[in-house]
Amino acid sequence: MTSSSHRSDHVEMPRRTVWPLVLSLGVSLLLVGVITHWLLFLVGLILMLFGVGGWIGQLMPGVGHVHEPLAPLEQRPQPIRPRAEPVEQLKPDHPGYRFRIPEKIHPISSGVKGGIVGGLVMPLPAVTYGLLVYGSVWWPINLLAGIAIPGVETMTREELQQFSPLLFVVALFIHGIMATGIGAMYGVILPTIPQFPGAQLLFGGLIMPLLWSGICFGLMGAINPALEENVDWRFFIMSQMFYGIAASLVIERSGKVYVEPAGGGT
Questions:
Q1: Using CA atoms, how far apart are residues 141 and 124, in angstroms rounded to an integer?
Q2: Which tens digits make up the pLDDT trace of 23-59?
Q3: CA angle 47, 54, 27 (to 5 degrees)
Q4: Kind and range of the H or E element at 87?
């Protein structure tokens, strides 16, 4: 004869019990009584012992479980029978079709090209500032090299006005890496902004330069103290805007490539 725990028309379930609640209440009162009053400690100890004993009693065979009847066979879920059928292909502009946003993006190469063009026009305000204020085009270039070359912050005004091959090469390298890197980022970000006439130019030529200028304003003291002491933020922001406008125009006028849908063929 089949035992009650293996009956096919019932399922074994834990019996409802209050003993875990009694045990937790006893432990809580016991701990509170340790730091307050011995009477609470005693009550908690008694409740804890009763809780442990009652809970162990519930674990005895045939005591802590009940057998719930199963639903009739006709009400139970039926097994799934596999069927070999063709998969309907989802099509664009039809419900269920999954696509990427935006559907078309500028290639990374357009962002790099925009960064190069922006990098070529970006120094114009800085060089103009160096000529007007310090009488030297090398002043902003030497200060830029101070990001990587130690000791620039201790150079005299006369030294910063002179051409230095090392500082020039370092500044050119820093400027080129930053210009192409930010240009590539422009190429990725610009297609994702809301599209309306002039949106990319507004975002890339004004919003991004102002945001980048704010970041530089907060970090320049730690990265390049010499540049922070001598920078004119009007010309600095103007340089960023020159870069942003030039890069945005190049990217905006470049062709876009179609992005393959994500799982569109399933």
A1: 11
A2: 999 999 888 888 888 888 899 899 999 989 888 888 7
A3: 30
A4: none
